[in-house]
DNA sequence: AATGTTAGCTACATTCATGTATCTTACTTT
DNA sequence: AAAGTAAGATACATGAATGTAGCTAACATT
């Protein structure tokens, strides 16, 4: 009975990466409520026992997977086109939200049975390296360069763009197009942050 | 062996109401992914067979339960205090979102494994009788009375309040307090809808 | 080359939810 | 009062996921 299916045997990073990817994809597809060791193992083409040797829980595995995935791309604002930089930062956000990792995170935080400690750990691990939310990075950048009034950058104002994108994705189930992102910037964010200071 | 537990036997509306309540509570507690006939039956203190006589599916049951529950309360704006009416409408929203029905709906729409047809049916059944979203009702009312510029009430602007409340609830897991609702109105909605027209 | 580690596989008992079938009996209708 | 309806209870076969155990062979370390 010589030839079993597996030609090579993965180890270390190669194996872990496959498991991480499988966990995130499975969470994005099924939601954390339906996440099982079984399904992750099947998707990663490995044995369930391999998973149990490292993690006790599907959620435990998923959190580690999200932490190990590539960090979220950060907006890189210039200082000459506030409107364009804001739209670009929202586009970064929709790109990430549409990814498996983004949908997995959304599923976790929207889960009514979520553990607050889990959500906190998630925010720390996934967003720790980032300077804040997407539009926040841009707005703070312009405020530091004297182009926006820092007093108007309240927590509410810094959340407007992300909130509208999130709601739109919840309502329609898909990422908004460029026209909608532009509308968010023109009709909601820019009126809230006030007039741009003249460059001297 | 006379005395079995059940003293009376529920029928018709009394039974259905108990089942509906159990389904919504169970969905709010566990999320639609973990919703089972078993758990609903236990919570409603009835037999699983009773559920299967009427519904084939936990989700089928839940949708009917949500449709049969009391409709969402509607904001009743005056025309003299835009700021106060907006805050009150957002308070209505947080009250509903905090209820079992609200959390159940949130769990359904945020479910990555959601069926678009289910979401559509849900919106039709639950929001059909309502004139729109919470702040939308207020803003439209003021526009009709000539106090706001109708051209500024775009889909994006009408969504600002609900979007910020939703994001806040996702982030913190609890309903925002009055100060935060006031901040949303003052710092995001009012700047976006523009100056109020003078009363003649 | 010998040794240690562990991925991959199989097997098993357990638990939980499913869907169906059957029976009794409380309640309703006629 | 008799007949019909359906709630409530029990039982059962099925399937999925769990967590554990044991084996073998591929790969790494010495």
Automatic annotation (TrEMBL), chains A, B:
GO function terms (MF aspect): DNA-binding transcription factor activity; transcription cis-regulatory region binding
SUPFAM superfamilies, A to Z: Homeodomain-like, Tetracyclin repressor-like, C-terminal domain
Domain of life: Bacteria
InterPro entries assigned: Homeodomain-like_sf, HTH-type_TetR-like_transc_reg, HTH_TetR, Tet_transcr_reg_TetR-rel_C_sf, TetR_C
DNA-binding region(s) from the entry: 36-55
Coiled coil: none
UniProt xrefs under Pfam families: TetR_C_11 (PF16859), TetR_N (PF00440)
Keyword Transcription: yes
UniProt entry keywords in alphabetical sequence: DNA-binding, Transcription, Transcription regulation
Residue ranges of domain HTH tetR-type in the record: 13-73
Gene3D superfamilies assigned to the protein according to its UniProt record, in alphabetical order: Homeodomain-like, Tetracycline Repressor, domain 2
Alphabetized PANTHER family for the sequence: HTH-TYPE TRANSCRIPTIONAL REGULATOR RUTR (PTHR30055), TETR-FAMILY TRANSCRIPTIONAL REGULATOR (PTHR30055:SF148)
Protein name: TetR/AcrR family transcriptional regulator C-terminal ligand-binding domain-containing protein
